[in-house]
Design goal:
Length: about 280
């Protein structure tokens, strides 16, 4: 199966209803998601937080499968931040690590069946060795799949990614005796963890918070942002499709001017500027 191939017949009836309203030629290439609200989902049900994470892992699987059915090439999920690692109770961090290992183990076959390739971004070398082993195992096993690339951001921080990129770029400059004032945006891009993928077209955040939380700060410069009140454990493929539908109603201008935004004045040099 080739990248971007469609398996629309495998969508649920609710998903298909929304999918049928989408413009196929304007599907995003890359969707990134800040998965938030696992703890609040559990709290609302008087459950322990870990049950929210466990249910959140189910959402990861289901949303990834929907992404693969609609031929989304890139899906990037913020699964564990550097700050989560430093600031959460050790017991919760340990649980998240065990959950990740178990997720990879028990979902490998489903990833294969859905032609999903798994990769990671972040300071993954600082994760426990047995977690890194399992991550490598899943990455190697799915490396030849050509459908959706699911990238998990693990022990990820956007500013530390930029620091890592600068360190690596500085080494290149030194080795090749390059001039610092020749550095371009493209050079920075080449040294980011995400050098191999396009920037996200759409960033989704669940649970209502209006923050970026240090997720892909360089890459989302022109990304459309969609925030939903829904907690991540309740987020499903149909909600991904709803976000894509909203995205398709946006006009992306990249700093240019859009339709209906006023007439362009050709003789601006003659216009008196009023500042008060
Ligand atoms: C935010 O919820 C979510 C996380 C800190 C981690 C995301 C983890 C998962 C979705 C589960 C495991 C993922 C994989 C890939 C197996 P929160 O705890 O910050 O929620 P709260 O803000 O309501 O407390």
């Amino acid at each position: 199966m080739e990248s971007g191939s469609l398996r629309i017949d495998e969508l649920s009836p609710e998903e298909r209803k929304i999918y049928n309203t989408l413009k196929p030629e304007q599907l995003p290439q890359h969707v990134a998601i800040i998965m938030d609200g696992n703890g609040r989902w559990a709290g609302q049900r008087s459950l322990k937080r870990f049950l929210g994470h466990q249910q959140g892992a189910k959402s990861v699987q289901l949303v990834t499968e929907t992404a693969s059915r609609i031929g989304l090439p890139w899906l990037t999920l913020y699964a564990f931040s550097l700050e989560n690692n430093l600031r959460r109770p050790r017991a919760e961090v340990n649980f998240l690590m065990r959950l990740l290992k178990s997720y990879l183990e028990s979902n490998l076959q489903r990833m294969m069946d859905n032609n999903v390739r798994i990769r990671y971004i972040g300071r993954t070398r600082d994760l426990p060795p047995e977690v890194q082993d399992k991550m490598r195992w899943a990455e190697d096993a799915t490396a030849r799949n050509t459908g959706t690339t699911l990238t998990l951001a693990l022990n990820y921080g956007g500013r530390s990614e930029i620091v890592d990129a600068f360190r690596s770029l500085a080494r290149e400059i030194e080795a090749k005796h390059l001039k610092a004032d020749r550095i371009t945006e493209e050079d920075v891009h080449r040294h980011l963890y995400t050098a191999h993928m396009p920037d996200p077209d759409l960033l989704i955040r669940t649970s209502g918070e209006m923050r970026i939380s240090n997720f892909l700060p360089w890459q989302i410069a022109y990304t459309e942002i969609f925030v939903t009140e829904r907690f991540w454990p309740d987020f499903r493929g149909q909600h991904l499709l709803e976000a894509i539908a909203a995205f398709q109603c946006r006009e992306r201008r990249y700093g240019g001017i859009g339709e209906g935004s006023g007439e362009v004045e050709e003789n601006v040099d003659q216009i008196r500027i009023a500042t008060s």
